[in-house]
């Protein structure tokens, strides 16, 4: 997948999930705050056991599945 396709698919996913206005607001916030995904992602599991991380991911997946039913 090239960069243009990735940007397009990513924006489409944001629009589908958040709606157009909130998707644009999200992108603006990322740009404004110079968001560092790697740093943010690293803090998600800080101080947690593998089991806690797994449970959180499982719960998030279940919530996500219910939203699409």
Which structural category do the helix and sheet elements fall into?
mainly alpha
If you compute it from the alpha carbons, what radius of gyration comes out, rounded to the nearest whole angstrom? 15 Å
Amino- and carboxy-terminal Cα gap: 29 Å
Mean pLDDT: 83
Number of strands: 0
Q: How many strands, what sense, and barrel or not for the largest sheet?
A: none
Share in β-strands: under 5%
H/E series: HHHH
Shape: extended
> What percentage of residues falls in helices of 4 or more residues?
over 70%
Number of helices: 4
Query: Which spans of ≥5 residues are poorly predicted at pLDDT below 50?
Result: none
Walk me through the structure:
The chain has 69 residues and is mostly helical. It contains four helices and no strands. It is extended and about 35 Å long.
Quickly describe the structure.
With 69 residues, the protein is mostly helical. Helix content is 80%, strand content 0%.
Helix-strand blueprint:
Elements (H helix, E strand, L loop, with lengths): L2 H16 L1 H13 L4 H8 L5 H18 L2
């Amino acid at each position: 997948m090239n960069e243009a396709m990735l940007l397009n698919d990513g924006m489409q996913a944001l629009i589908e999930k958040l709606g157009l206005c909130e998707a644009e607001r999200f992108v603006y916030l990322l740009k404004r705050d110079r968001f560092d995904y790697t740093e943010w992602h690293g803090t998600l599991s800080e101080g947690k056991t593998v089991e806690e991380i797994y449970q959180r991911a499982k719960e998030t997946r279940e919530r996500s599945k219910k939203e699409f039913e």
